[in-house]
Amino acid sequence: MQVEIHSDYEKAYQAGVTNKYKKASIRIEKYDGYSADGNAHGEANLDGAKFQLYADAECQTKATVYDASGNAKTAGEYTIKDKKCTTDYLRSGVKYYLKETVAPKGYVLSDEVKEIQVDASAEVNEFTVELKTEKYPNTPILGKVAIQKYYSDVDTGLLEPEANTTFQVYLKNKGSYDQCTDYERATIKTDRNGYAVTGNLYYGTYVVHQVDSGDVDAIHVNDFEVAVTENGKVYTYPLNNKLFKAYLKS
Predict the structure, then answer these.
(1) Which residues form the SpaA-like prealbumin fold domain (predicted)?
(2) What CA–CA distance (Å, rounded) separates 75 from 62?
């Protein structure tokens, strides 16, 4: 008697099917978190910032990413150019953590860790370029320029505060006050104590120009430069000029 036995032997040795997870890159865009237009001002520049992708929120382990052929690799640094950059491909559904490692010129290094997760489940293809955009702000380096203005009388030898004296402060590389944005210039007038201070000015080198001598007829100070390079710093300059009559006597 012949008995036919059904077997799944051949199926057991079928080649395994590779599960190709969907992947997508993201676009990172930088913007200024202080200015109304989101652009850099002064001598600050949003380009040059560097980012790293990590696998953990503590940013201890660099993330695994993929090239266009699906090969896994360790994420390198991403550098901002023209205020943007594109990452390698990230696996759909996996959490990644993005952190700035190098601040752009004129900005404070951000300590924000941004959680990123791409969802490419609705995409037809295995790879999707720039599935979404992550916007990343930076805080600019801002400083102030302060003037403490005095005048001296050669007849009395007294040093007195010079009130109501006007100064213009403007970004040097713009060439003039009128060419600057409001983030790059200020007009200030000394109070009764001879003191005046600008609002926040962006990172850069500024020219201080005396416009008038206020309540007394004193010689103007020569233009001078101030480099704003430290965030939150007030750059204070005591200035003293003799009364104009002192020069007439000489």
Answers:
(1) 40-128
(2) 6
